[in-house]
Amino acid sequence: MTIRIDTLSAAGPEFGRRAPQPVGPPDHGPAGAARLIGREAERELLRTFVRDASSGGAARVLCGGAGSGKSELLEAGVALGAAAGMSVLRCAGVRGSAPSDLSGLLQMLWPLLGDARLPSGSGQLRALEALLVDGAPGRRDRARLPFTVLEVLESVGVVRPLLIAVDDWDALDSPSADVLMFVARRCAGHPLGLLMTSRTPPAGPLSPGLPVLSLGPMTLAESAALLAARRPGHDPQAVRDLMARAAGNPLALLELPARTDDFPPHLPASSDRLAAALAPGAARLPAATRDLLLLAALHPAADIPLLLSAASRMRGGDPLGLTAVEPAERLGLVVLDGMRVDFTHPAVAGAVAHGTGPRTCRRAHAALAAELTRGSVLQLWHLSQSVEGHDPHLAARLEDVHRSALRQNEPAMALRLLRRAAGLYSAPRDQGRCLLRAAQLAHGAGWTRTSRSLARHASDHPLGPLGSLYAETLTGLGGDAPTIDPARWPRPEGAAETDSALELAHLVAPLLTDDRERADALLGYLDALPPEVAGDPRLLHAMASAAPVRRAATVLARLAARGPDIVAIRDLERLGEAALRAGAPLEALDLHRQAERLCLFHDLPDRLPATVLGQGLAHLVTGDWGQAETAFRRSREEAERRALSDDRAAAEILERLTCALRTGTVPEPADSDALAAGRVPVSALHEIVAVGTGWARVESGDVAAGHAALDRLLADPARCTPALFALVVFAEAAAAVNEAGTARARLRSLERDLGPERAPLVAVELAVAQAILADDENAAALFERAFHMDLAHRPFLEASLRLAHGRWLRRQHEFTDSRVTLRQAAATFAMMGAEARVTRITEELRASGQRTDTATAAGTRPAPVAGLLSAQELRIARLAGRGLSNRQIGQELGLSPRTIGAYLYRIFPRLGVTARAQLSGVLRSADEGVEE
């Protein structure tokens, strides 16, 4: 066994046997503690251990799997001990070797042997030196050895508290391991600490009676921090991919190769160091077991019968049974889980297959392809890995089946299929087409580096004009003039060029929002594309990005005409973003909810924060601040759990902003780095924050500042589209600061500029804002026009309109009608969580003669009911409270079920209820109040 001894750091300045130092396996050294990332709870336990060891003795075992970070934590403990003034002795086992007896003790005690300055009057050190260096001990010496070692260590601890650091205790020679365990159980009462690491034994606890600190996997946040510190420069999707494959194992995080060009035949990625750590005995397993493990590594989802059948095929037809799995199970590489063979860690799959030759790997892929369903995605994938050279027929099948992988929400598999198809084609044009499509998929999935690399490779092959433009744009080689000027783009010819046109438009549309001329050129180009792609999510997203509200009617009409066959999560997200930009938040909410359901169905948790974030934005646009804040909180929590820093930043900023709107406070300015990160999932985050902050100032009572901010943003709505959804609060602020005339002129200008295709929501906002700003002469007509707008499913606008109408009625001395209208507004705002608005309406009610206690109850128990509902609404509420369905109520009143649903949608917030079951109680209480 080789030995490495550092006399100064081992025993401190009091001791120092300066003998020639044998060379051995390097340790990390105390400086390694500074590199430790995460493990805060474990480090706190180590601090406690060092304090206890310095004063009265302590022992602890750091236990975990291969690569779990035991050695790094041991070095952190050594650094803490040295900082606390402890001397350090250390030794380490070496796996895969057969160390000689007592070599571990010799390694640990070497700095002490022969040091005459040690207080050891009974000569234990000389006895130990004779025992460990000069020859094998006799039977009597062997029996006394643990006591002798303990006495020597105790005497060393008298001079200075002593820390013994043992790495890989379970890999030491057996006599040394037994002696160290003996010392560990008896160190209490002496300034002596023993800190050991050991791999988790497959069966039972390590050793009863010793405190064990078990190391689990690192959290996702710790994994992301480790990658950022030790392996910077990866794009977010590559980081998520590494974290998924490493599953919290620090060694795997540092050693696993990032996905690069996948040269056939495919083999799970690993490294020499990782294979040695995670599968040290795999090469000595029986050949049948190694074949079975290779097949399981290539097809992790396969069941046992399929693996056994494929392994039998690899071995020429020799039947195999479950006994072939047992050696790998005894070695701790796999576990049998019902009908499946599961690796004990995801990285073990690559470790057991590491070093497999291409010929064997192709045979394994061919065996799997022969057992899988003919023509399926996986069958064609494995078949493609089993062939060499060109095969255009198989390449065409791969190119076709990649669409099935996309429909199954497996973009990574679709990307692999296209890249392999490019390798199987012999014609350069076919190769370029597949590489370009792969680049497009990689860009949509967030693999930035991969997409640019593929685009560069595609540029080396013959491409169509639009394909070349897309490749130039993606790699940043083309400059502005030829690439981002849609007026110069050629018309597509053929399906491949049409697809490139859609991808190119989707890529550049967000860059043209500040350039009206080029944005209009892009819109004209999109209008001229073939009609069969009119509803393509990429086209609608590009149209909504380039002209969010000027083409809203077209976007919404095409959204309504789309079929139910969209099952790709990314397409649903694009449609949801397009609907929100076009001013249709309810449609956007529905699309993002569909995307969330698909994320859960396909077990894609990393996509959840973005889909929930989209739902929060839809709620925010509708004015439902309570639901928006809940959605943003959910998104932030999901992002924190999965270490998705960009999604977390956006959700946190929007959650604070929504809370400020709801409570009537001004949010703290967002950090510039957080804003930059948040713009990755929410491109308009800066504009949303600017509008929301101005709005929050109005809600907080700083109306003049809020009005000035919103007025600046509305001066150029093309640069700040979110400001168009704040027209009502802008009108309220303008009326409060006596700027109604100027605001009316601003609204007329906007109405003229937006044109007939403006978003329906913006049209309603304009009508409500104009009513709010109306003078006494035109107020009645404008309020009537606004109330006749489509206010269904727009409760915030309806409540704002009723608030303004109630104020106007009070000014007309119609106090009774004013109170009814204001109570209706208060009930709706209370249901939506607008606390600051409910408080202000309380003041309005008090001004109109309403008692304070009744006014403050408006948010929870609006009364009297007869003042809140019309006769027809009251009758529908009573029938619904009796348990009748919408269809039954409609049959009794001669109305359609949809009309009854619309009535109930307006009734619920006015009465402060959220379910039919609450109606009977509210109506009964109101009736009792009338009787009294």
Provide a descriptive summary of the structure in words.
The chain is mainly alpha-helical. Among the domains are: 7-214, Rossmann fold; 261-373. Helices cover 61% and strands 4% of the residues. The strands form 2 sheets. It has a 5-stranded parallel beta sheet, with helices on both faces. Mean pLDDT is 84; it is low at 1-33, 478-482 and 852-863. Keywords: ATP-binding, Nucleotide-binding. Pfam families: AAA_16, GerE. This is LuxR C-terminal-related transcriptional regulator. Residues 1-32 are annotated as: Disordered.
Strand content: under 5%
Order of strands in the sheet with most strands:
2-3-4-1-5
Largest sheet: 5 strands, parallel
* Helix run count: 47
> Under the CATH scheme, which class of the domain at 7-214?
Alpha Beta
Q: What is the global morphology? A: globular
CATH topology of the domain at 7-214: Rossmann fold
Distance between the termini: 96 Å
Average pLDDT, all residues: 84
What ranges have pLDDT less than 50 throughout 5 or more consecutive residues?
1-33, 478-482, 852-863
**Count of distinct strands:** 7
Helix content: 55-70%
Write the layout of secondary structure elements.
Elements: H1 7-11, H2 40-56, E1 58-64, H3 70-83, E2 87-92, H4 103-109, H5 124-134, H6 139-159, E3 162-167, H7 174-185, E4 192-199, E5 212-214, H8 220-230, H9 236-246, H10 250-255, H11 272-278, H12 287-298, H13 304-314, H14 326-330, E6 334-337, E7 340-343, H15 346-353, H16 358-371, H17 377-385, H18 392-407, H19 411-424, H20 428-445, H21 448-459, H22 465-475, H23 495-508, H24 516-527, H25 537-546, H26 552-561, H27 569-581, H28 585-601, H29 608-622, H30 625-641, H31 645-663, H32 672-678, H33 685-700, H34 703-714, H35 727-736, H36 740-754, H37 760-772, H38 779-787, H39 795-811, H40 815-831, H41 835-847, H42 852-856, H43 865-868, H44 871-881, H45 886-893, H46 897-911, H47 919-931
Parallel strand pairs: 1-4, 1-5, 2-3, 3-4
Antiparallel strand pairs: 6-7
Helix pairs in contact: 2-3, 5-6, 6-7, 11-15, 12-13, 12-15, 12-16, 13-16, 16-17, 17-18, 18-19, 19-20, 20-21, 21-22, 22-23, 23-25, 25-27, 26-27, 27-28, 27-29, 28-29, 29-30, 29-31, 30-31, 31-32, 31-33, 33-34, 34-35, 35-36, 35-37, 37-38, 37-39, 38-39, 39-40, 40-41, 44-46, 44-47, 45-46
